[in-house]
Structures are given as C-alpha cells and as structure tokens.
Design brief:
Elements lengths: L1 H20 L18 H24 L9 H19 L6 H13 L2 H16 L3 H7 L4 H26 L4 H39 L1 H4 L19 H26 L5 H4 L1 H21 L9 E2 L2 E4 L2 E4 L6 E2 L1
Antiparallel strand pairs: 1-4, 2-3
C-alpha cells in the first residue's frame, strides 16, 4: 500500500512539473471561461489519486470500530474532489461552457471545506476523550464549542467563496472582478479562522505535554500498526498527523488567496500548474495520511486519574491512569 502511494505521489509530482512547462494558455484559452484549457492527463491522475484515497477512507469508515459518524465528512470530501476532476474532463470537451466551468470550479474550490470540518470535529472529540478538567485546562475554547464556532465560520466563508466563485466566470468584467473580491474576502476569513484553529491545536498539545506528562506519554502503549483496526494508545500520532494536515490546508489557503488577489485573468488563476502544485497535490498528500491512521482508532476514552493539590499535580492512587 505504501508503495502505491509513493508511485501516485511521484506520478502527480512529475506531471505537475510537466504542466508548468506546457500550460495551455493559448489565444483560444484567453476567450474561454477560466482562461486556460485543462489538461486531461492531470485530471485523470487527480481522479485516481483522490478516488483511491476516498475508497480507503470509506473502507475504514465502515470497518474500523467504533464507527464515528462525523468522520463521513472526510471520505465525502475526497469523493467530491474526485468528482471535481471528472467535471474538469467534461468541461474540457470543449472548454467553452460557462455552466460546466462554474460547476467544476465550485466543486473543486469548496470540497476542501469538508477537510477543515473533519479536523475541527477531530480536535473536539479528541478533547472529549480526556477528563473534563484536562480538556478545559488545555483548550483555549471549550471542546463543545469548537465544532460550532469553526463550522459556522466555514459556512459563512463557504457562502462567500461560492458566490464569488460563481461571479468570476461572468462575461461582465466588473462582475468578475467583484466576484474575485468577494471570494478573496471569504478565503482570507477562512484562512484566518483555520489559522486560529491550528493555534488552538498546538496549544492543546503543548499544555498536555507540560501539565499532564503522564497523559502525553502513555504508559505501556500497544505497538502501533498502520492500516489496522487496533486502537491506538499513543494519541500523539493523531495530533502529529492533524498538524501536518493543518500545514497542507494553510498552503492551499495561501495559494487560493494569491489566486483571487491576482484577479480572474491573473497568472496564478490561468496557469493550472499552480493549482496542482499548491492545492490538489498538498491536500491529497496530507489528507491521505488518514488512510494510514484512521482517526477513530485514537479516540478511545482516557482517564487521567489526576488530583490537583494547589499548584502541584499528583497521580491519584485510587484512580490509576488507564484507557477505558
């Protein structure tokens, strides 16, 4: 399985390099929606890469106990992205349909919102796996509010991006520029919101490592196995993967901001090599890490058994540290 992912990564990377040398931004492309002619070869690779990862996610979702309903957002997002690449091929035959371009662009632009929602709900559920006093002390926001605050924030930015993305394809230059501005505002707000979430995740991990070292380093954890149904005692593995996904998502956010800031006919928007290098490829890499480590395996209930005596923390002999 790991060799297959390495092969896919190599194929994606080399094809992206080739795209940079031969973007089809011809005179005809200047007169079509999007300003470029999508490369079918890249789209086929996108379908295979996201489709395969999505299938693995669906397999984990239905077979790894306990089934966490909220985790459906991840395979749905990967499936939607694969569909976006299918629509990209349909739009390219020939690339002159405004309606097909708008639908394709919105599906690819908005599918990653589900990846963000996945990380939000993961942190909330990971925090709930600890005692309330641990979660409340280590989180900057109560775990019950994390999903509500950030998901509703993303709903608002989702509407801005979808509205702006639709307007960018209009023939009217003023409306297209207005769409770019609206979409840019939505992307900036989304990036700021996710940046705040990343800070909350880092602080959460740091505070546990500082104030609850016995939780940070589990006692006698079972050996970690990739692509397994076995529970993961060392929950830090999930945190590390979440941090990597945050990096990939932030890279994509910065790219999208640069794309919209450059305008509908800007260099970044009309050369798809940038899209594959800073959007499709990093997102696929980081979200495919959940194929190797399905998050539900690390969301078991944890009891700290800690009593706080003033500023000093001691293990409560009557409540030994355990995994329930």
């Amino acid at each position: 399985m790991s060799r297959l992912f390495i092969l896919l990564f190599t194929a994606c990377f080399t094809t992206v390099l080739a795209a940079g040398a031969a973007d089809q931004t011809t005179e005809d492309a200047n007169n079509i929606p999007g300003g470029f002619i999508p490369k079918k070869s890249l789209s086929y690779i996108g379908i295979i890469a996201y489709g395969l990862s999505g299938l693995i996610h669906w397999f984990h979702f239905f077979t790894v106990p306990p089934r966490r309903t909220f985790m459906a957002t991840l395979p749905i997002g990967m499936t939607a992205m694969a569909i976006g690449f299918i629509l990209r091929i349909i739009y390219a035959n020939p690339p002159f349909s405004l309606g097909e371009y708008v639908i394709m662009d919105l599906v690819i632009l908005l599918s990653p919102c589900l990846y963000l929602a996945t990380d939000y709900m993961l942190l909330s559920n990971l925090a709930k796996s600890f005692d309330d006093d641990v979660a409340n002390r280590c989180l900057l926001i109560r775990h019950s509010r994390i999903t509500k605050i950030f998901v509703w924030s993303d709903v608002f930015t989702f509407l801005l991006q979808s509205g702006g993305g639709g307007l960018t394809a209009m023939d009217n230059v003023k409306l297209a520029n207005l769409g770019s501005t609206i979409g840019l505002i939505g992307l900036i707000l989304q990036a700021a919101s996710f940046g705040l979430f990343t800070v909350i995740l880092i602080v959460f991990a740091w505070r546990i490592s500082t104030h609850y070292p016995e939780l940070w380093c589990p006692q006698s954890p079972r050996p970690f196995r990739v692509l397994s149904r076995q529970p993961i005692d060392d929950w830090r593995i999930l945190v590390y993967i979440m941090l990597v996904t945050c990096v990939g998502i932030l890279i994509r956010s910065i790219f999208r901001i640069a794309e919209f800031a450059g305008g509908y006919s800007g260099t970044v928007a009309t050369h798809e090599a940038y899209f594959y290098t800073f959007d499709a490829l990093p997102l696929w890499i980081v979200m495919s890490l959940y194929c190797v480590v399905w998050p539900a395996r690390a969301l078991m209930e944890r009891r700290s058994g800690i009593l706080e005596l003033g500023s000093r923390q001691e293990l409560n002999p009557g409540k030994p540290y355990s995994f329930a």
